[in-house]
Amino acid sequence: MQKPQNGYKVYQCPKCGTKKYVPFTCKSRLCTSCGAKAANEWAEKINHRLLKVPHRHVVFTIPETLRELFKNPDYQKILFQASKVTMEDMIKFSNKSSKKKIKLKIGMIQVLHTYSADTKHNPHVHSIVTEGGFDGKKNWIHVNFLILTDSVVLEKATCINNHFANNVID
Question: What pTM does this model have?
Fold first, then answer.
């Protein structure tokens, strides 16, 4: 956020003498102003690295009752793992009518957010996922994301549930 406490630069018109004070930014990623700028710059940089195929923005969240557990970085890793496995499993069905499972290599970028816009603890993973993937012969196979929506919720819940069922929670 721009505040005079962060320092400022003074611009003065050489003709009329009018001064304009421009405060420096705090450069904090938690700041709604500075953080948004940094996020936009990051998104622009990532955009140039994406494959030139259709992508989807998918957000993986957890129920509010479990959020406290996910303050632990080890559990945050589970959220990444669950979202990755979920998307890979869902994309195995490349065509709803054929029901044929095809192992595809998908593209996915994941970013963990630990707080929501209202600054409450709300761990969630934002994922940019290719709408399909490459088969073993490096052929692009498109996947219709609309048929995956309900399955993703079930798969995510199953993956997290299986992890907690197979591991002791400290």
Answer: 0.63
